[in-house]
């Protein structure tokens, strides 16, 4: 769903793909959070939270969200999840 390149301070960059499980965890821990809201109204804090879930799930980061935010920079790429309807149909 979301491909992240994570650059920790003083460490090697690593890549992680946030999946629906990570989005689900984000929704469960974010008041009013939904996939639609995440994709249409991106906030950096939300991206860090999703990336943290993904990095912990894949055992590439073991610290807290606060440690992750303080020590890592993010690069990300979103997959297109909603396609526009075909107007010729």
Oligomer: single chain
Helix content: 40-55%
Large-scale geometry:
globular
Distance between the termini: 27 Å
β-sheet strand percentage: 15-25%
Strand order of the largest sheet: 2-1-3
Number of strands: 3
Q: Compute the average pLDDT.
A: 86
Radius of gyration: 14 Å
| Class derived from helix and strand content | alpha+beta
Q: Count the helices. How many?
A: 4
Topology:
Elements: E1 2-8, E2 14-18, H1 20-29, H2 35-40, H3 44-57, H4 65-71, E3 72-78
Antiparallel strand pairs: 1-2, 1-3
Helix pairs in contact: 1-3
Model description:
The structure is a single chain. The protein is of the alpha+beta class. A 3-stranded antiparallel sheet has the order 2-1-3. 42% of the residues lie in helices and 21% in strands.
Short characterization:
With 89 residues, the chain is an alpha+beta fold. It has helices at 20-29, 35-40, 44-57, 65-71; strands spanning 2-8, 14-18, 72-78.
List keywords for this structure.
alpha+beta; globular; 89 residues; 3-stranded antiparallel sheet; single chain; 4 helices
């Amino acid at each position: 769903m979301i491909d992240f390149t994570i650059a920790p301070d003083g460490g090697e960059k690593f890549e992680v793909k946030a999946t629906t499980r990570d989005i689900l965890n984000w929704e469960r821990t974010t008041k009013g959070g939904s996939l639609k809201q995440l994709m249409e109204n991106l906030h950096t804090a939300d991206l860090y939270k999703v990336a943290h879930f993904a990095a912990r799930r894949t055992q590439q980061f073991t610290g807290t969200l606060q440690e992750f935010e303080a020590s890592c920079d993010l690069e990300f790429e979103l997959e297109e999840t909603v396609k526009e309807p075909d107007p010729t149909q």
